[in-house]
Amino acid sequence: MYEGRIGPRIRGDQTWQERAACAVAAEVARDPDLFFPTAADDQRVALAKRICSSCQVRMACLETALDCGDTNGIRGGMTAAERKGARLGFERRCDSVRVMAALSGRDVHLTGAERQEFVRLASRSGTATLRVAEVLKVSEAHVKKLVRRERRKIAGASQGEQDASYATAEGVPA
Question: Quick one: which H or E segment has residue 64?
């Protein structure tokens, strides 16, 4: 999420760019390639990061760069090398707000962990297979497989809880 917007950015939404500090910075007008410095150009990197630090949509910029795997320039206040390090954590995030937004019909790009949570919630709430397929951009047959897998997990967890309560009732340590 980012300032000026309620909820997660919809897939493909680039309207935040109009409010970006780099779009109006005088330094960028003088040096259009400011946000694409060479790795050895510490002064230009520092200047670009300074502009990013005052930007109201910095997080949207960073999220977009991480979503699409952008490997060029300074985005969201981070160099390509810094984003590479942050990408793994980003891909593992599971933001419940984004998952619920997808469940309610918004076209939100979900990470792998968010996709798993989406399937879990969709299978428990009885969300239509076609709707789940549309959100995940997969076939209905694949969704049916994912839902079956999720139901097996739930059944396995329930069986494990029953076994533990039985063992405790019998005086056997769980």
Answer: helix 58-68
